[in-house]
């Protein structure tokens, strides 16, 4: 799949057997519905856990009608696929069953009989009545939001009854949701998810031997929030969360860089230089850090030139011999 919208090659060829392409293909496919209504052929194996029933999935897909070269439906042209929640955003029963049989990174081909696709009526004008359709689906990723939503709804006392690993897992899921929303340029929504993750981590007290796990999780969220507030053009908050990250890891180059960006945004050039030079010390060949220092130098040069021009005007004599500002 991977953006291809050509008809799958296995469907092409002679028809000497008297069977249609879909009939030939179905003979070597796995029945995952129990009534041969949803058939599956794995093209590339995935890894990890199966998709959970309440998950939100990130997929690429193309749907084909028999004897047609181009898909009638595909999202492969989108730069970033939309996150879709099972049971809400996916309308084909066959696709939902198919996704529940998949693992991250898996690419598979499915045949959906009408009962699991568009039914006896079809979907005019594209889908005729009683039509079997083929879908190629690539599962890029999935996030189990149900577990996270239920856990976040609990009181702090109830959450404390769960082991630390559970809290860390839910916080990581919230952060992953935030990352996805950030990539979609939905910065406000991303901030909400990051703050939910941070609240979970702040609430939880851990024994000394496990506190480093909580601090490591907090560090990632602080960095995410700092970057998000920069995109929201709120540099004061970006600096605050960057400095929180530095309390955990004072040599963290990313945190120093974010703080430098925030100070530059606020035209606090000396502070910006201090943070950026410290970041450069940790990562001397980092392209972004070095470019930010060049930007700082340019901005500071413009600033000093304007200051000199203002001073020059203040002390330049007027026609009557007095300087500007003199009574």
Automatic annotation (TrEMBL):
Residues 1-22 are annotated as: Disordered. Its EC number is 5.2.1.8. This is peptidylprolyl isomerase. It catalyses: [protein]-peptidylproline (omega=180) = [protein]-peptidylproline (omega=0). One of its GO terms (cellular component) is fibrillar center. Pfam families: FKBP_C. Coiled coil: none annotated. The gene is FKBP6. InterPro entries: FKBP6/shu, PPIase_dom_sf, PPIase_FKBP_dom, TPR-like_helical_dom_sf, TPR_rpt. PANTHER family: INACTIVE PEPTIDYL-PROLYL CIS-TRANS ISOMERASE FKBP6 (PTHR46674). Belongs to the FKBP6 family. Residues 54-143 form the PPIase FKBP-type domain. Keywords: Cytoplasm, Differentiation, Isomerase, Meiosis, Nucleus, Repeat, RNA-mediated gene silencing, Rotamase, Spermatogenesis, TPR repeat. It comes from the Eukaryota. PROSITE patterns: FKBP_PPIASE. GO terms for molecular function: Hsp90 protein binding; identical protein binding; peptidyl-prolyl cis-trans isomerase activity.
